[in-house]
Design brief:
- The complex is a heterodimer of chains A (about 300) and B (about 300).
- With about 300 residues, chain A is mainly α.
- Chain B is mostly helical and about 300 residues long.
- Chain B starts with a helix and ends in a 6-residue tail after the last helix.
- The chains are: A mainly alpha (about 300), B mainly alpha (about 300).
Chain lengths: ~300, ~300
Amino acid sequence: MQNVMQSNEDYEKQYEARERKRKIMHIVGRVLVFTILIIWAIFTFWPFYWMVVTSFKDTMSINVYPPELWPHNPTLDTYKKIFAEANVWRWTLNSFIISCTQTVTDVILAAMAGYAFAKLKFPGRNKIFWTMLCTMMIPSEITLIPLYILVINKFNLGNTYAALIIPGMVGIGHIFLMKQYMGGLPSTLIDAGRIDGCSEWRIFWKIIMPMSKPGLAVLAIFEFVGTWNSFFWPLLVTNESNMRTIQVGLSSFKFEHMQDYGSIMACSVFAALPMVILFLALQKYFLKGITVGAIKG
Amino acid sequence: MQKSAKESVGTRFKYNIKNYGWCYVFIAIPVLLFCIFTIYPIIMAFVMSFQEYNVMESKWVGLQNYKTVFGSPIFWKAMKNTIIYTVGTVPVNILIAFIMSVLIFPLGKRGQTFFKSAFYLPAVTSGVVTSLVWLWMFDPQETGFFNAIMKAMGFPTHMWLASSNTALFSLMFMTYLGGHGSAIILYLASLGNIPKSLYEAADIDHASWFSKVKNITWPMLKPTTLYLLIIGIIDSFQVFMASYIMTQGGPNFSTTTIAYLIFQHAFEEFNFGLASAESFILGVIIVVISVIQFKFLSSDVEY
């Protein structure tokens, strides 16, 4: 009897030792994973840290080896230079104007079309929708060349806000997203509205739009950021510095000040800052919006 | 309701307007914009590809543009560059995003949100900003970040972007440290949908972490992987920004991608006909690859 009880205690001790070891391994594993992720995050952020640090260095500090990881003589000269020598404020204003306008038109028009395709039945609904959707697969390179000729030569709208805004007023992908989103809204409220004699227009504005606020918010954010960061089309339709957007202006700044990296980085910081601030303020909507439409169910 | 053919068109039209008028109002502006700015340009591009189209005049030349494109060694070099770029970035970045998502997922809600934000943030800065920062980091002098490291380790400085064997790779390297944000977010969302019972069953069989990932996580995430693969290939075939800002297609056309070539022909040489032909070839390639991927790779995917 004595021997059996002892071996029971032994078993318990061995079991506890194994459990302790398992828990330690678990914590070690967690710490390791966390460290790897933090290191990778540092790698990802490093270029942007480097950009900001460089923007505060004067020309002497930039051309010194080894490069300073932190500016010893921080200076605002680079920023003063970009405001003095380049049309930075005007570029930012242009970007702001076209981003705001396109966001408003995109949200309204995509919601209207998405609602019609999702909830209203009319002849040609499917044909029109699928035609529009299929063209999404066609790369933009094909359409940009004739679009350029159309807007610049035929309509003669080079260097105007119209040229910057109108072609992008509504995105087909956004119509698709709105259709998916509104398809999930309950039809009962719409039917109730119709029974009460609401016109379709009022149903849309008084019932559908308030219900769609989360989806509309996500759409608005992505459209705003996408337009702010857009480069190719504004590059094509503007060659006057006054009409350039901040991204195209930044690129022209680089080509004019080839090796002056302090100023180039300062201008880059200025171009990137608005969207970074927007992201930090509205993270929730960004993160939610990416999965909208891409994940089934 | 049976009416004669002539009558029915007119009355059908009136019936449609009366009953469905509002529906057409809702889609009117988008459809109009679509016709003017999408359908018409596509048709115009197709027609232009058979013409010699300069800024003011156009001349029908049949298949001449296509012959020029296929006979041009620069085109084939651009094609090769684009394919190398695609093969070297898309699978690698999907794999990196997958591994990171698998590592981030067990961290719980707050950890996930922190890392999701951290890794998505770079995507909010534009391609121009990213390209300029990396241009500075690849600077050929010893003050450029990478060359400073090289010198510190005792190696000679290198002209990353000016040397034809490292230029394209440098552009590819840029993507490894950057745009995984949205892929990670998509993977994390899908990871949440994997039933825990599968993992519990594997635990009962004492499966190792690696074997659980290989046999449960990876197959269950195949729809997301396929989506990222298709989108990734479509996007990387159209890469343009880095070439334009950083290397202008050089040195020796080693960073000329097809999209950059189209840009050069259209907006620097104003040879719209040739550029349209090239863009159509690019379009066909992209559509064919996407369809092939979708058909062949999704055969064993469960939805």
